[in-house]
Design brief:
The protein is of the alpha+beta class. The chain has one domain: Arc Repressor Mutant, subunit A (Orthogonal Bundle). Helix content is 40%, strand content 19%. The chain contains 3 helices and 4 strands, in the order ββββααα. The chain has a 4-stranded mixed β-sheet with strand order 1-2-4-3, with helices on one face. Helix 1 packs across helix 2. The longest helix is centred in the middle third of the chain and has 17 residues. The chain is globular and about 50 Å long. It starts with 5 loop residues before the first strand and ends with a helix. The relative contact order is 0.13. The structure holds zinc ion. The site of zinc ion has 4 residues, from helix 1 and helix 2.
Length: 102
């Protein structure tokens, strides 16, 4: 699936960019820039890593929106944990989107 140009986080459209935000950041998988509401995804990484990288950056954006502080390891733990739960329970995302118990 092609990556959309924007993603809504906390009621704000964040721009999704394929690329490296600045020289010297070639080794980063992704980056979240709160001020510009931008998420950058490095296209040079393995295609298998890109969904996890996007989830990782989304978690950064959600935490920044909430003014919550955590460590990079905390973000990584949420990325791995939430990603695994979603992959192991294919029904969960649709059920959450429904917003109610049927
Ligand atoms: Zn991070």
């Amino acid at each position: 699936m092609k990556l959309p140009k924007t993603i809504k986080i906390g009621g704000v459209d964040w721009k999704l960019n394929w690329g490296i935000p600045e020289a010297g950041a070639e080794d980063k998988f992704g980056e979240t820039r709160f001020g510009g509401s931008e998420i950058w995804i490095n296209p040079g990484q393995s295609p298998n890593m890109i969904p996890s990288t996007l989830l990782h950056e989304l978690i950064h954006a959600v935490l920044l929106n909430a003014g919550a502080k955590t460590t990079e390891n905390g973000v990584r733990a949420l990325e791995i944990g939430i990603g695994q739960v979603l992959r192991d329970n294919k029904w969960l995302a649709d059920w959450l989107k429904a917003g109610r118990v049927v």
